[in-house]
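DOMAIN: structural biology
WANTED: fold as tokens
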Amino acid sequence: MQFTSSGRWKLPGMAQSALDLTFKAFAYYLIPIVIGVVSIVALVCWDSQYVAGSSDARDIRVLKETAPLSPPAANARLHAAVPVSYFDTHLSEAPVWFRFSTRPRAPGSIVGDVIEFPSRHAVDISCWDAATLQLLGMATREQGTPYLHSSKAGFALQLTDLPREILCRGTFAGPARVNVVQWPETQFDLSVEGFHRKSGLLDGGMIVLSLFVLITALINRQPLYVLFSGWLLLNLRIAGLSAGWDIQWLGMTVPPQWMLLGRSLTIALYGVSTLTLYQALFREELVKTRWAIPLRITQWACIPLLIGAVTMPYGTFLPMLWVIMAFGFTLMTLGLITIIIRSRNRVAGWFAASFALTYVASLAEVVSAALGMHQVLNVINSVTAALASSLLAALAVAEQMRMETQKRREAQEKLEHAYEAMPVGLFTLDMYGNIVSANPAMRKMLGITEIVPGRTSWKQFFADSLWSELLEQVHLRSDAEMQIASRDGAQRFMVSATLARGRVEAVLQDVTEQYQATEQLRFMANNDPLTKVFNRRGIEKMFEGAAQLLNAGKPLALAYIDLDRFKLINDLFGHAAGDEVLKQVCERMELTLAGGQKIGRVGGDEFVIVMPDTAIPLASLICRGIVDRIGGTPYRVGDKAFHVRGSVGLIEVSPGMPMKDAVSTADRACREAKGGHHEGLVVYERGSNAFQERTNELNLVARLSGPDATEGMFLEMQPIMSLSAPYESLNFEVLLRMREADGRVAPAGPLIAAAEKSGRAGVIDRWVLSTTLSWIEDNLESLTNTRFVCMNLSGASLNDERFVQDTLEVLARYTHVASRLCMEITESVALHDLDNTRRFIDQVRNFGVKVALDDFGAGYTSFSYLKELPADVLKIDGNFIVNINAHPANVAIVEAIVSLAGNLGMRTIAEWAEDAATIRTLAEIGVDYVQGYAVARSQLPEKLLAASSSASFIQGEDVLQLVRTLGSSANEADLRGFVPYDEHLL
């Protein structure tokens, strides 16, 4: 048993060789075989991801237009036509009228059907409703209409509801087959996706193969491979023409005016290229056969073929093409058979097989087109032939490369000992460190002009200690390797050495650039590329190291810096100016810090400073200096000057505090500093309330994640008063409250914030929803005057699919009282995902639930998107209400919102109404409901049950006097009749 110098067991030589052979067998044979077998099984047995469902081929009544016909005349004549499954034009370019019936939409289907006209030879098409002769659409290859347009290789008609009978007129060029297929819309979309996927696979595979051959040709300077590369691309286009994929190239749509000319030229050039490649490959073999002269005749025949492709109409050109191509392909096939029998060249054999497959498929396409048949061979067509023949051609290229590689290997073996030509430094050292020999590359690396035996020493170019280390390594291992630096440190080398015949044989490579690149990558891994300060990863490492000093009793401070309104610089002057300001900001901050204090950039304009061994008073002075230095003088960028100010949150880190908690707490302090009341700096010392608040938040998150998440929660209700009939309705909004274990009622704000941060907002909203509906059900007899009960929804819940499903289930259980519920959705949340919001609103309204758009007016997109949201109520943002009489603009804004809501059939609720003057103004401008302290604070549910109306809770005499003048029973009756969006609300 052998051991290394470190005492580890080393495999014996034979065992190591066996292991190497095993790994080679896996890598060279087993893995490719397994991949091949799995691929075959997948192709044969697995379901395709893009398989579309079955389509429905519709029978058509066909009329070939011999004289101009109007749609009514054609429609009348088609009544007597016999239905057929398809119609072949036989190269005729005369317009074709056809009529067909459509399949009715499947019961319960929410999507329509699509009519496909799949002929790739279709030039234009127009369709009418056969019953009314109303034009459904018309399309050409250049343009279409929203309902009739080009799709896949042909055209498609997409209508919400298809007429029972459809009349169409189409023009075709080439051997067209007219037929009609009806698809379900989803299946048609899947077939379109599969069509383009197959086209992409064919394009990608053939183009990659062609590029590979072309690059090989350029590297090896082989004109034959350039020709073969072009032939592969033409082979791709021929396959695309057969499958209807030639309407695009590299994902770009071919201009329609180029289509027919492109097809003619593609086929003609393919024939010329095939014949040229054929003769180039087998010129010597063809001379010995009887087919040389006929092939020359075919070559001359290609000239009129090319001229006809450009000058002749497509329908006229095709018969001439078929004759010449059939003649040429037949001759080449016969020649190939002769060559395969006589030739022993494997390259020629592979090429011959490739051509033979292409010829057979092409001949089958020609025959089927000439005879008007759909397909002569079911297995082989131009598409499969293109892929198979390209694969065979690739095998031929691989065989050619193998032969060339073998030749290069033989030449390389002859040059093994061409020591002087080696691009790496090869040298030999004696056991004293003297250079015995070195090749030119080695001498060039070290600048050696002449090697003097016994005097040119290793130590002249490298540190003295490196020789001893290298000598020790070669004695320990047979293949020592180490990275070394030149004596002046300007260069880096990788030396690989072994001990042989009492000397050190070594290879020296200059890895200076690689070393510099590695160092740069190492720097970039921990540093911000723009400012060169630490990035998040780097500052985290710095924090981990500094946190270990806390256990030794040394203080640690952490600062969070945020640049105020920095985004304006990027938006107004570009990111280049913003980047330059960021670099100057970092330079100013670094001038303020001591040696052990480091900056890390953790956001676009956000930074963290770790201050090890720094007491909080000193850290406060440093941060105050940073605030002053950042905003003290403007930043010069070119001819512009920018004033930037920063806000700093500084905390004293406690032992055991994770960095994420420290950064979060410092960020909170920074946000407090941005409020403008602390001159840009807020300091949280150890034991500060902020730390306790952070702990409380984490406890709330843990509580919400536990089994008793809703323990201690209860509801209060704040009345909402009608301004048209204050004493006729008792409406209110449910508000969440939480009672701690000691009986103290805690505010719900921190609980909701913690729930949204932890993704548990749905737990709270689900509890509030079910509790509210259950309470309404239990007290339904006492709530005869209650028209609606408002409930807030969290934005996180609205985007939670599970919560949405649970909401629908809860509403289904309380169907008889769900119509009393009005769900409030914050405007900013609603506009964040308009489609999702609209879908949710439609679902809950199916149960009679009403929807209110909360905090309306706070968002700048309110009016532009209001028409997209089918809300029943607008709750005007309280910021407009609380000081409405302070400025006429407030009244004008609220009045505009009320007018808009009325025009859209919605009611309005004004929040934060705190005095009689506010209520009077709101009543005068037409607000429907008010909510606020002027009416009542939130009440326990028991008090709501004892009241007859929302006005019953009013305490202020001035408000009571005002309310007595508002509305009457007649007004309330009018309000009950309001049904634009609902039947029972408000």
